[in-house]
Amino acid sequence: MFEVHKESAVDQWRVYLSGEIHTDWRTQIEASSFEAALPVSFSAPVTNHSYSDDCGVEILGTETNKFWHDHKGAQINAIRTKTLIEKADVVVVRFGDKYRQWNAAFDAGYAAALGKPLIVMHGTDHAHALKEVDAAALAVVETVDEIVRILRYVIRGELDVAQN
């Protein structure tokens, strides 16, 4: 007889939450995961838009050319992003409805290149535009609840069949 182990070999799962910064989806995932008592810690990019845009010139000095302004910020932000994606056990990338999120697509590609398990979240209206990103993902979802249920399953081997 085989014994089924519900707990995973990972004591604390590290989940990187990338993508759209205009809604509270990260907070919802964190709260639902805490409520489910999942052994997870979350990390994310700096979500203060002006800090993220201006960190390079605030730290390294002003630029008259907008390209170099953005370039300095992108490089400093990449220190955080690369480090946290590399440390992550799972990477979740959300594509919102309003904005083109090239950085989210880049993060998804970077995570996929590193072989990180990738969960992508977006609405059905983005399915065609994100088909290559979706193909690299191990799961494509539309809701926060689906993400938390996936985490619960992969960490504990549990399904909440009452929700089906």
Largest sheet: 5 strands, parallel
Shape: globular
Per CATH, the class of the domain at 13-44 and 87-163 reads Alpha Beta
Order of helices and strands: EHEHHEHEHEH
User: What percentage of amino acids are in beta strands?
Assistant: 5-15%
Strand order of the largest sheet: 2-1-3-4-5
Give the fraction of residues assigned to helices: 40-55%
Overall residue-averaged pLDDT value: 92
Which structural class fits the helix and strand makeup?
Answer: alpha/beta
The low-confidence runs, each spanning 5 or more residues with pLDDT under 50, are: 1-5
Looking at CATH, the homologous superfamily of the domain at 13-44 and 87-163 is Response regulator
Can you summarize this structure?
This protein is of the alpha/beta class and 164 residues long.
